[in-house]
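Expect sequence, tokenised fold; for instance:
***
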Amino acid sequence: MAKIVVGIASSHTPQLSMGAEMWPVHSSLVDHRLVDLEAQRALAPLGIGKEVTSERIAQKDAECQSHIAALSEVLRQARPDVVIIFGDDHREVFQEELSPALAIYCGDEVWDLPSDLPSMIESQRVSDWAYHGDVALSYPTAGGMGSHIAREITAAGFDPAVMASLPQGISLGHAFTFVKRRLGENFEWTMLPIWLNAFYGPNKLSARRCFDIGQAVRAAVESWPGDERVAIVASGGLSHYLVDEEFDRKLLNSLQADDAAALCAIPDEKLESGSGEIRMWISAAGALRGMNVSSVEYVPGYRSDAATGVGLGFAVWQ
């Protein structure tokens, strides 16, 4: 049977790939669209100004690059044949006409297409290298295992959508290409994308449902007749577009303690906006239940004095 040999979780925000000098630029370009900056400045933690100096941001960015390099090396040393990625979608693959709560890729290849750079704001353009390149690339995908997982979890009471290919001209989304380009660029492996709806109602998944999906995926992998080495990756998170440092640290403590009850009890209101990507971490925790959390790193990625930014998390299960 196939064997899960390692688990990885990582934020995938553009902040990780734009350079420290662009964090405040990104804030100036997007934060006013996301939150009431005046109101949030009044609510921001004491001492927030010290967190958004150029020196402190540069230090945090350097820490993040080190953590990404460490995750990449862990993944390389684990030598997985298949990497199952729990990721979300920002209307990249699924449009307003179709928002599945859960979808599994069952094709044998998937395309990573160049972005329309002229249409993007400056901070997005300079970070886009972490998601897409200048030319179209085809990635091999574990379609057979994907079909098997879809059958098995359907029998277990879940209702996944399945995809054999992406629509013409549609690229695989950044939650998945970030893993390929920044965590797994230095060795050969086959991808298996699994989408969880993190943003779009009315069918966003609860924390408990995400955890249960992870457990069902693990059972399906372990019933696969092949002998592949499998990695589980959670792509996205943590809290954003306002950094909730207290909540993020509590979440990471629950992961380290393998506390399924605490993870399943996370209320929906803590999984709104960008923080919805925490669902990927919860599903990974379900799939990796019982494995040792060997490394957890956290960087509160504030980018303004209104506490906007991303809680930047990095974890390893072995």
Summary: The chain has eleven helices and ten strands. Residues 3-317 form a domain with the Protocatechuate 4,5-dioxygenase; Chain B fold (CATH 3.40.830.10). Strands lie at 3-10, 82-87, 102-105, 109-112, 137-140, 161-163, 190-196, 229-235, 293-302, 309-317. The chain has one domain: 3-317.
